[in-house]
Amino acid sequence: MSYKSLLSLALLAVTAAALDVFDNSTEIIGKRSIPNGEGTNNGYFYSVYSDSSVTGTYTNGAGGEYTLTWGGSGDVVVGKGWNPGGPMSVEYSGTYAPNGNSYLSVYGWMTSPLVEYYITESFGTYNPSTGGTHLGTCTSDGGVYDIYTQTRTNAPSISGTATFQQYWSIRQTHRVGGTVTTGNHYACWESVGLPLGTFNYMILATEGYSSSGTSTITVGQGTGTGSSAPTGPSSTSSTPGSVPTGGSVAEWGQCGGIGYSGPTACASPFTCTVINSYYSQCL
């Protein structure tokens, strides 16, 4: 083997190793498995998944910010959030400009049962509900979401190749920026017969499939979710579902449940309604 060939192999090995380091840097998206694209940055969990047909860059920014540019015929899913996820107030802002099939969602996983879930705020040219089973609607954070489920057979997952259910809440009116009270969606899913498992990671994700686009998103944690919410960086802006001054809870906010230690009085004219043993909500 020539000296040039040996040098090329060495450079390829160094480059491959560097692709798994994302902290405060921009990296070229290449073929990677789910575990190889996970880590922490500025106090947030992040996940980067792409297959071999995707090109582009992923950048971890300050705090809960990230930027993605993508293209190609494959699938890419990236984002920042928490590990584990769970019932909490997710606040986000930014820009999202897809060309083709893409979703902007609170995206996460559960185990026992294994579930991949999406709370979709906006999408591109393809409605992700296509082919799913419609189970009802969920009203939360000033909007109405359609609930769907579908089965993924022998598909990639956090537990390797597996067959599992997807849960979807798809916002009827698209938006880029606001609050997502995840506990509301968990309660809605349970109410239509979709069981919850143990929470794994949860991110504010940009996903693109056979498409292109750019996305710059900043994610943070709001208030008013009680002790059941994971700890982490938080945002202080006032949004629906947060705890206003005076100790009362606004519409859609949590007001009770096992492990909850926050305010239990709802702002007028709303009342604290038991959804399940772990979650009561001002409705």
Automatic annotation (TrEMBL):
CBM1 domain segment(s): 247-283
Compositionally biased tracts (Low complexity): 226-246
Originating organism: Lentinula boryana
The family this protein is said to belong to: Belongs to the glycosyl hydrolase 11 (cellulase G) family.
GO biological process: xylan catabolic process
Keyword tRNA processing attached: no
Renumbered residue ranges of the record's region Disordered: 216-246
Keyword annotations from UniProtKB, A to Z: Carbohydrate metabolism, Glycosidase, Hydrolase, Polysaccharide degradation, Signal, Xylan degradation
Pathway listed: Glycan degradation; xylan degradation
The protein's name: Endo-1,4-beta-xylanase
Domain of life: Eukaryota
